[in-house]
Design a protein that fits this description.
- 18% of the residues lie in helices and 25% in strands.
- The protein has four helices and eleven strands; from the N terminus they run αβββββαβαββββαβ.
- The protein has helices at 5-16, 93-96, 108-118, 175-186; strands at 18-20, 38-40, 53-55, 73-75, 88-90, 100-103, 122-131, 136-145, 150-159, 164-166, 189-191.
- It has a five-stranded mixed sheet.
- Strand 8 and strand 9 (150-159) form a beta hairpin.
- Helix 1 runs antiparallel to helix 3 (108-118).
């Protein structure tokens, strides 16, 4: 059975320990927006408040035939170890490339990977982003559900000088080389990975060329 966006959001809310408002629905006519219906009940590991949200363009019909709610808001990306007040964000697929954007802590990466596997999603890719000014590294997991074409992005941020997240290669074996490449070029470690040796760089390379402070 193909899960709906509402069912996926509710499943994430249970994993992340956040609460959806009664009657919440992300389906057409449900009246949900990116932040409505999602209330954080957990506390962040950072005492800093999240940056103000920015308003996205009105929603249009997604290519999958699933209407994404209008009035979307996209919170600014958090600093390392911080979860925004609305960690589950609906986005416009036509402009962003995914339907659901979920921010988690590093330890929650495994739980969300298991959830995606349980819901029938496959792993599309694992990538990294160097937020040097914020002294953070971001790991981005792109998931795709083939039957519905729903795309979900799960992201986490860790301190730049201690960039480590758990490997999901035991859940999604295809993550093995994605994580190796992310480690190779950005220096993000994937704890529990069986083999983080470089794919393209020399085996004895001690540099990470996609870090913003890298000098050739």
């Amino acid at each position: 059975m193909t899960p709906t966006l509402t069912e996926i959001a509710k499943a994430f809310s249970r994993v992340l320990g956040v609460t959806l408002e009664p009657g919440f629905s992300a389906e057409p006519g449900g009246g949900a927006s990116a932040n409505s219906g999602i209330t954080a009940t957990t506390t962040s590991s950072s005492s800093s408040a999240p940056s103000p949200a920015t308003t996205a363009p009105p929603a249009t019909q997604a290519s999958t035939g699933t209407a994404v709610p209008a009035g979307l808001t996209t919170p600014a990306a958090p600093t390392a170890g911080m979860i925004p007040s609305s960690p589950i964000v609906f986005t416009e697929h036509a402009s962003r490339g995914w339907h659901l954007d979920v921010t988690v802590t590093a330890p929650q990466v495994l739980d969300t990977a298991r959830l995606m596997d349980r819901l029938g999603f496959c792993l599309d890719m694992v990538t990294g982003v160097d937020w040097m000014a914020q002294q953070a590294m971001e790991v981005v997991y792109d998931y795709l559900h083939f039957d519905s074409s729903v795309r979900v992005v799960v992201r986490t941020r860790v301190p730049r000088e201690a960039a480590e997240v758990p490997t999901i290669s035991e859940i999604f074996p295809g993550a093995n080389w994605h994580e190796r490449e992310t480690h190779e070029f950005l220096g993000i470690r994937f704890a529990g990975h069986p083999n983080l040796t470089p794919l393209l760089l020399p085996e004895d390379a001690t540099f990470h060329p996609l870090r913003k402070d890298f000098v050739a």
